[in-house]
Amino acid sequence: MSPAERTASSPGTTGAGTSRASSAAPSRPAGRPATAVDVPRRVRLTLARVDPWSVTKLSFLLSVAVGIALVVATAVVWSVLDGMGVFTDVNGLLRDVVGGEVDVNLLDYLAFGKVLSLATVIAVVDVVLLTALSTIVAFLYNVSAALVGGLHVTLSDD
Q1: pTM of the predicted model, to two decimals?
Q2: Per-residue pLDDT averaged across 24-44, rounded?
Q3: Are 142 and 32 in contact (CB under 8 A)?
Q4: Which end of the chain has fewer CB within 10 Å, C or N?
């Protein structure tokens, strides 16, 4: 008998060779025996090595996200402070402290464009530094894991 004939003539299968699902079948993974109490499986693993290139890619992506969040948060905080009139109040306080002979305007130094430009520069530096530092940490982890055996982790399917 050929394999195609065996598939077509075996009980519980259709002519195309796919099995029908029985509604009375227990809901457990295939190949696992039925037990009275389902005990969660535990697996003990060791993280012996981390690929530095994948760490570099992931850290670059995450640091870009942090940089974008930094720029957006800076714009929101500046807009809220300006809307509340904090800069105007601080300008009035500076005029009272310094006196009328010196003209001090806080918004000359803390204008929206200048603050956002500084936040963007800090975000770019953040991207470069976080990417480089995480790559260095990956190399250091690989060296230390080679010496002490790595990080032992126990996983469970509760």
Answers
A1: 0.66
A2: 68
A3: no
A4: C
Q: Is the dihedral of CA 45, 51, 56, 57 positive or negative?
A: negative
3-class SS of residue 87: helix
Q: What is the pLDDT of residue 35?
A: 62
Q: Are 63 and 130 in contact (CB under 8 A)?
A: yes
Contact (CB, 8 A) for 153 and 43: no
Cα separation, 50 vs 4, in Å, equals 47
CA distance 123 to 64: 8
Residue 33 buriedness (CB in 10 A; 0-12 / 13-18 / 19+): exposed
* Domain boundary assignment for the chain: 56-136
Quick one: which of 123, 114, 52 has its CA closest to 78? 114
> What is the rounded CA–CA span in Å between residue 88 and residue 92?
6
What would the DSSP string read from start to end of 84-150?
Answer: HTHHHHHHHHHHHHH-TTS---GGGTS-HHHHHHHHHHHHHHHHHHHHHHHHHHHHHHHHHHHHH--
The tokens of 96 are what?
């009272």
Say how many Å lie between the first and final Cα of the chain, rounded.
46
